[in-house]
Amino acid sequence: MTATEDDCANSGPGEQPSNNGNLKVIRTESGFEEAIASESNGSSQVKSGANRLSYSDKTILAPMVRVGTLPMRLLALQFGADIVYTEELIDWKLLRSFRRVNDVLGTIDFVDETDGTIVFRTCSREREQVVLQMGTSDPQRALKAAKLVENDVAGIDINMGCPKEFSVKGGMGVALMADIEKAKNVLETLVSGLRCPVTCKVRVLPDVDRTVAVCQTLAMTGISAIGVHGRTRDERPQHSNRNHYIKAVANALSIPVIANGGSKEIESFEDIKKFKNETGCSSVMIARAAEWNVSIFRKEGRLPLDDVIKKYLVLSVDYDNNGSNTKYCVQNMLRELQETPRGKLFLEAQTLEQICAIWGLGDYCRARQLEFKAAGLLGRREICPQVLRQESNDSESPAKKLKLEGNCTSNIVTMKVAYLRSLFPSDNDLPKSRLLAWSRKQKLGMPSYKTIQEGKLFQSVLTLDGKQYTSSMWEKNKRWAEQGAALVCLCSVGQVDLSTLKADGSVL
């Protein structure tokens, strides 16, 4: 399975920074004004039996690694999808997060308390239609994680189809189909412990009768539906989807069966209907065809790719989506178009603003980011251990501080500078390399670095010629923290222009 398929775990690149603002902003472009509905009291309405999610006769956005984040889910709903699944979220990652009401964006954020990244972001627009897919191998841990989010989603799905080594070694994904008793225990525990519907998603086994028998066993746990991908754990997209296996499951079960794996034959909304008829299923779940052009859900027909990308970028801006995650999604839309002149320009882009500029949305992106900042949004550059400790109510340990030479902080040169790796194509271009060459030429000696770590965040102070320099932005590894400090020093001594740093996105 490639990284673009469904059923794969969220490994991190799609994560986003947190914020703790308490002001509201008005949507001006994306068309999701209703998503701003106030949630400032932190409460969520518990769903009654009358408005529980139904899985019958639906078209569904499949769970896809790094693709199923909030902007893509909202766009799928805008184009006509009935239900949208998140990317797979691992139970222990959810348990490591705390829930925050984000009034600036009109969202609910689950924030990793160790580094401030967004594990899961959702909003009122999708609340009755979003299903969180979870990776787990332990019933009680799964229940504890699901209880954190059950009032913010329409349903919980357990991934029993991912064949990736990470999942299998952890006893998750297809490993659960090899341990049916554990799989039953996970589902029964969730069904009895949650107020929202529970489902699971599986892959077919090599034998059709065995596939039917396993699905019948899982259906007896009380789940509301089951998704079936028509390939085995060892088969990949180039292999034919076993539609007749899915049909056999659909004929044998009384609960809704969701057909998945037909993207090779799906190029229009009419093809979704054909796939549904061939498999005899209640509903259809679309992965790669939606990843390539999510307007596949439009009954009126697909839109031109440029129109889809622009709509996706507006949503990415309006919901402060991580630049690398946005780039990943657009890259998978472009596919072979990455070889065009514009595609190559896109591949060089690093920040969300740079990506937006290629489609004429650069000014809109920057204006919104400044608006968010003025409204109190804490972006990636503002995240620090003290903020996370305060928000997660973790006061066990005091904040660490770097010991500066002479115990004096007044002489330290501080700037909020982000180190963006793509701006430095060769090792000689790196800030540390440039600073070392300059300091030797000036006969100032060797720069020295002192770095501290708290949680998963790092900050470094550089000392050169008796002066100290640091970026107030905490980075996610030691090397980047040192490069940031070097960039501050280069700017301070006139080797890098501040306007250049602003133009390339290093300084907002």
Automatic annotation (TrEMBL):
Residues 1-25 are annotated as: Disordered. This is tRNA-dihydrouridine(20) synthase [NAD(P)+]-like. PANTHER family: TRNA-DIHYDROURIDINE(20) SYNTHASE [NAD(P)+]-LIKE. Gene3D superfamilies: 3.30.160.20, Aldolase class I (3.20.20.70). GO terms for cellular component: cytoplasm. SMART domains: DSRM. Pfam families: dsrm (PF00035), Dus (PF01207). GO terms for biological process: regulation of gene expression. One of its GO terms (molecular function) is tRNA binding. Residues 431-494 form the DRBM domain.
